[in-house]
């Protein structure tokens, strides 16, 4: 059986003007504008190891399970959607203290080598941009 080609991992970084524990908590809070879960039409979120998530947005279901939850340093979960062609991929988010800020890094790996999977680059950039902007606006108040 021939192994399917995978995309190189997608990696995104943002510097957030808040401490890692606050950024970690906000990332997982569907009530926080800018968090990925906030914009969902429907969300089920159980952020603990083996906890399930279901994220329905713009007619598209996404789901997975958490495989690592090391607050405030790292989260990892699987990710499945029509954009992964139904294949399981992995999202790892790290929160590293950088002075009084947080260097947030998101890596999406194990995506199939396909145009639909490449759309994750635009999606994650949009989500991370909104999330970082939420903190930038809050820090200017």
Account of the 3D structure:
The chain starts with 9 loop residues before the first strand and ends with a helix. The protein has helices at 20-27, 115-139, and strands at 10-16, 42-45, 52-57, 60-70, 74-79, 89-98, 101-109. A 7-stranded antiparallel sheet has the order 1-7-6-5-4-3-2, covered by helices on one side. The model has no long low-confidence stretch (mean pLDDT 93). With 141 residues, the protein is of the alpha+beta class. The protein is globular. It contains 2 helices and 7 strands. It has one domain: Alpha-D-Glucose-1,6-Bisphosphate, Chain A, domain 4 (2-Layer Sandwich). Strand 6 (89-98) and strand 7 form a beta hairpin.
| Strand percent estimate | 35-45%
Major sheet summary line: 7 strands, antiparallel
Mean pLDDT: 93
Instruction: Provide a count of the helices.
Output: 2
CATH superfamily: START domain
| Class from helix and strand fractions | alpha+beta
Overall strand count: 7
Question: And the CATH topology?
Answer: Alpha-D-Glucose-1,6-Bisphosphate, Chain A, domain 4
Helix and strand pattern:
EHEEEEEEH
Rg result: 15 Å
Low-confidence stretches: none
Tally the structural domains: 1
Name the overall outline. globular
CATH 2nd-level architecture: 2-Layer Sandwich
